[in-house]
Here is the input.
Amino acid sequence: MNHRIFLSPPHMGGNEQKYIQEAFDSNYIAPLGKNVEEFEKSICQYTGAQECVALSSGTAALHLALIILGVKAGNEVLCSSFTFCASANPIVYQGAKPIFVDSEKDTWNMCPDQLERAIEDRIAKTGRTPKAIILVHLYGMPAQMDKIMTIAERYQIPVIEDAAEALGSTYLGQDLGTFGDFGVFSFNGNKIITTSGGGALVCDNKKWADRARFLSTQARDAAPYYQHTAIGFNYRMSNVLAGIGRGQMEILDDHVSVCRSNYQFYKDLFKDVAGISFLDEPDEIYRSNFWLTTILIDEKAAGFNNYDLMEALDKANIESRPLWKPMHLQPFFASAEAYLNGVSEFLFNCGICLPSGKNMTEEERKRIRDCVEAFVAEKQA
Ligand SMILES: *Cc1c(COP(=O)(O)O)cnc(C)c1O
Here is the structure.
């Protein structure tokens, strides 16, 4: 049997183990040390952010951003509905209420019209402006930043960019994660780069970054003994894992270029197939890292649906997956307020994520091509 082709497997560049060895040689196994410093520095240099705090996960980064922005029990926080649950869960950790906002069709990210409608309606109903906006750049595709930031500024609502999937993507040449008050990256095993598990919080405000460093290391006061005036968290990244991150930053651009070529490969593969459309960059302002290549299938035109294609791929030992199930459809968030236009439900119903390995080989592409061509020939004969 052929090896399984995974959706988004990790890929190491080679220097990761060298940096891990350095941590071992210096015996800086835990928690901080040179790898953490250098990893943070490389993220600042790459993205243009002034400050970076390496953390145990992207979820932890989102949680700290909410805390530092003062989100408390009873507050309302606007959040993209079309996303992974980790975007919204930290709102609940704070005892605050997520208010979900639907997507637009061009980037699949937060719809500016629905965002404005949500803000106006929350003000009308509660007399208060929502406390923050969690804006997600899904699958690496930049959201409509000009419109979203204009609305956020007009209502003076801070923005947390969930760029967990979007390291290496830009909007008008500026790196995602650096538009909002905070940016969040994830280095989970399946992301564009990985530390096996980890995340980072970026911002341009040194006080906020210092606060994140303080809160992520159990909020220890400057005293000779352990004294605490705040509740902290054990959220800091370990110096060993940051060694993986240093090696991964060296090949981030290679990963982005392979992921972009994966997208081109699928564009060619599906060129003459009826009923297929892609999440494309709307124009040259948007540059996606194409972390995952995603397509929509119009069942009537195609003669098959997303689950049919997933099943055919699976039979050939090739992994694919549906798109994220929107948060407003999740049983846990059933009673949350949501401002909807049908777009994210439509995407969820007919979309699929295709294998998007960061070192996908020609042999793997051939297997995918053979499988898809045989399947389409059968369905569209
Ligand atoms: C992966 C992911 C996260 C969470 O990151 P972790 O490092 O796994 O905690 C948050 N938001 C989105 C959109 C993600 O894809």
Notes: The two ends are 28 Å apart (CA to CA). The chain has two domains: 16-251, 253-379. The pocket of pyridoxal-5'-phosphate is lined by residues 57-59, 83-84, 86-87, 136, 162, 164-165, 186, 188, 199 (CB under 6 Å).
